[in-house]
Amino acid sequence: MHFDRSRSADTVTQEITMRCVDADGETVVLEATLGYDAADPYAVTATFRTEICEVVWTFARDLLTRGLTDPTGEGDVHVWPCLDANGRAVVIIELCSPDGELLVQAPTTEITKFVNRTLARVPVGTESTRIDVDELIDQLLAV
Predict the structure, then answer these.
(1) Number of domains in the chain
(2) How remote is the C-alpha of 126 from its chain's centroid?
(3) How many CB atoms lie within 10 A of CB 27?
(4) Which residues pair with 31 in a beta bridge?
(5) Could you tell me if 104 and 60 are in contact, meaning their C-beta atoms sit under 8 angstroms apart?
(6) Of 15, 46, 108, 143, which sees the most CB atoms within 10 A?
(7) What is the pLDDT of residues 4-38, one digit of tens each?
(8) Tell me, what DSSP letter sits at residue 51?
(9) pLDDT value at position 4?
């Protein structure tokens, strides 16, 4: 596990080894980076690295937080707690797009560490204080 402390104090990154689960239940290692930036306080990113490319998914931090204890999600992202084949606690993240689906499992302890670090930066319920509505409107009108 690696924490990137070179970036802003309002940014959290964490390297994590996940396991990609195929349709037969077989798993392969998939290296990923979880990211959070307080400037976009409702979102987290998961960057999956393969030999060919990196794929970045952005989804609600709340999905990752709630998915630690209960099945959650609608649409393209679903998260739920589970046990792996060896009985270890994992979090399952299912990502769906028109191009395909990805089902990964990550150790619950690692996801919990990441979520707790994001909550230390921006506690639940304070996200809206990080958003400058006037600036957002200016950006929308400038387009």
Answers:
(1) 1
(2) 19
(3) 16
(4) 17, 49
(5) no
(6) 46
(7) 444 467 899 999 999 998 888 888 999 999 999 99
(8) S
(9) 40
